[in-house]
Amino acid sequence: MDLASLAIFRTVARQESITRAAHLLGRVPSNVTTRIQQLEAEIGVPLFQRDRKSMTLTAEGVTYLDYADRILNLAEEAQQVVRPGEPAGTLRVGSMESTVAARLPLPLSEFNAQWPDVTVDLSTAPTRQLIDALLAHRIDCALVAVPPDEMWFAADAVATTRLFREELVLLLPPGHPEIQGPEEIRPRALAAFAPGCTYRLLAEEWLTGYGSRTARLQFQEVRSYHAMIALTAAGTCFSLLPRSVLDLVPDAGRFTLKPLMTVDTSLATRPGFRTPAFLKFRETLHAFSDIADVDDATQ
């Protein structure tokens, strides 16, 4: 097993095809097939289920891919750290969906203009899943919103820098009367991302009075803010989202809003992670920060 074999395996796993993987890798298909067969023989288990049209991972293959990702990412990180110079290589950035939509387009454009040799691999997920991916070395940094009292957040394992302050607003269907408390909300379901989303957690806490009352909550899990807003517009649900996201929505003024709280978005990474690409990326994000008292002590 070597890094080249792992890289070939990862590409085939992602493409689910020898032919497509060979094209991306600049190799002939027979060479890719041979390398996969050699890897499987060395490990002693099949990594793929093969049929005429695609190759899908076996259960062992899924587990092996997770380790291959970590090994390849660590190898690239090591190469960047010990070879100081201009930022280059791949920077794996995780982010909440809202931050991608409302905060990252301009910084990413600026970063690409200044450092074109860096490839930004961007993925989105709720905060808890992003922290898990960060600690597992699947990503290099993440833009997250972490409540300070959350027990799953290992503060000593993650370094954070606050960057953006978001006003969270409760979004109610057009024509809905203004409200003072949760009991006045007409739709009974909250449109939200999967568990692990900080904004979903904060909505639950507000709806239950931070544990002081019992509330029968119903959830409509969605994968995008577009779906969340559409369900609210239809009167099926209500939702909680940053005002910066709502500002991107045409006719947002038709909805009934209730401002609830402010929450900071932070850039999180592993302590000591200091590749040239990451340092310049953090520097670029600082230039767009709307928090005047950014705390550099955690950098």
Automatic annotation (TrEMBL):
Protein known as: DNA-binding transcriptional LysR family regulator
Function, in words: NodD regulates the expression of the nodABCFE genes which encode other nodulation proteins. NodD is also a negative regulator of its own expression. Binds flavonoids as inducers.
Ranges where the HTH lysR-type domain occurs: 1-58
Family: Belongs to the LysR transcriptional regulatory family.
PROSITE patterns found in the cross-reference section: HTH_LYSR
Source species of the chain: Rhodopseudomonas julia
InterPro entries: LysR_HTH_N, LysR_subst-bd, WH-like_DNA-bd_sf, WH_DNA-bd_sf
Molecular function as annotated in GO: DNA binding
The organism's place on the tree of life at top rank: Bacteria
Pfam family, one: LysR_substrate
Keywords assigned by UniProt, alphabetized: DNA-binding, Transcription, Transcription regulation
Lineage per the UniProt record: Bacteria, Pseudomonadati, Pseudomonadota, Alphaproteobacteria, Hyphomicrobiales
